[in-house]
Amino acid sequence: MKRTNVSIDTQVIHAGEPNPRIGGAVSVPVFQSSTFESSSASDYHSIPYLRLNNSPNHIALHEKLASLENTESGLVTSSGMAAISTALLSVLKSGDHLIAQTGLYGGTHTFLVHDLTQLGIEVDLVDMSDISNLENSFKPNTRAIYVESMTNPKLNVIALDEVVARARSREIVTLIDNTLPSPVNFRPAEMGFDLVCHSCTKYLNGHSDIVAGAILGRAELISDAKRKLDHFGATLDPHACFLLHRGLKTLPLRVRQQNSNALALAEMLSTHNKVLAVHYAGLEHHPDHVRASKWFSGYGGLLSFDHAGGAEGAHEFVKRLKLAVEAVSLGGVETLVTLPAESSHSGMSPAERVRAGIDAGLIRVAVGVEGIEDLVSDFKQALSGG
Ligand code: PLP
């Protein structure tokens, strides 16, 4: 059920705005104060203090983000990794077992296999492209399942509905990273996921100028996560809150333009003789096109493609680009390109990269909101070299 009856375009503008407006301000100002008068505090976690994530900037963002993901409650954090690690540690304790999908974002993968295991939490990475593998992975101590709505850089979408169904019948908590689609394209809580994590660094803020994160879900789960975050201290600072709040107001405008730019670019690339393969769930030949079409209202701004000239061709292409910038990250208004084998996935061994289908000539494109005709001509002229 939708949390409100208004469109996401209206939610980004009006949800969570203070009522009445503070000092009449139409835009929530930056509350650059570490502490606030505390006469109404009932316990430690409700003392108005910046690290306890309860300044007016935080409260407005919690409400707005929860509204966008259609959940009861929300919590902002100092980065996407702060959101993911806090969410997992609020659900898991020593002796518990976590099942996670293979091919996760590298930072999450490292956190699971190095940090969680050091805390006595068992972690199994399961290839869920065949969902029957999940069925064989449950143990009596399985407490949670962690997945991503779409994987990076091949943009795969697993049978997310089956993950929820199989977890529910066993009372297992489901967590999902919804950074890539953003709530404009997909709202996992409506499918039944318990906790939704975001790197707000990406589409939610959208301007490549802050790092931030968020956890959204049922009130009691978010309250547990807030207690952990209060202790970990991974609070988003008020100025970054302000920037995220401002960025959110144009989220649907940006993401729809990124959806349509990425699709047009993917279509052009798929007909180009210097391109071996294009990976974009909006293309009919993508292995998960049917699932993405059923659940998502757009296929997102991220795509990848294999350059026919391998690593050398990919380097030459990137060097020739005039508009797109070579940089990691995604979700901003400007188009960024990166070679995953040398950046996000450089920590893998060559054999692991082969298994994951990440060749040296693979180029990831985080499509921005520029004019599509300009992007297409920039990519065409860059492909014409070498
Ligand atoms: N999740 C995904 C899908 C990401 O791509 C990233 C960062 O690239 C993160 C989480 C981590 O976010 P942050 O860099 O904000 O900590």
In short:
The chain has 386 residues and is α/β, with parallel strands linked by helices. It contains 14 helices and twelve strands.
How would you characterize the overall build of this protein?
The chain has 386 residues and is α/β, with parallel strands linked by helices. 37% of the residues lie in helices and 15% in strands. The chain contains 14 helices and twelve strands. It has a seven-stranded mixed sheet with strand order 1-7-6-5-4-2-3, sandwiched between helices. Helix 4 links the parallel strand 2 and strand 3. Helix 2 runs parallel beside helix 9, helix 3 runs parallel beside helix 4 and helix 12 packs across helix 14. It is globular and about 70 Å long. It starts with 7 loop residues before the first helix and ends with a helix. Bound molecules: pyridoxal-5'-phosphate. Pyridoxal-5'-phosphate binds next to helix 3.
Could you list some keywords that capture this structure?
alpha/beta, 14 helices, 386 residues, 7-stranded mixed β-sheet, 15% strand, 5-stranded mixed β-sheet, 12 strands, binds pyridoxal-5'-phosphate
Global outline? globular
Helix content: 25-40%
Number of strands: 12
Instruction: Say which molecules are bound, naming each kind only once.
Output: pyridoxal-5'-phosphate
First-to-last CA distance: 53 Å
What does the main sheet amount to?
7 strands, mixed
Pairing-aware structural class of the strands and helices? alpha/beta
Strand order of the largest sheet: 1-7-6-5-4-2-3
Q: Compute the gyration radius: what is it?
A: 21 Å
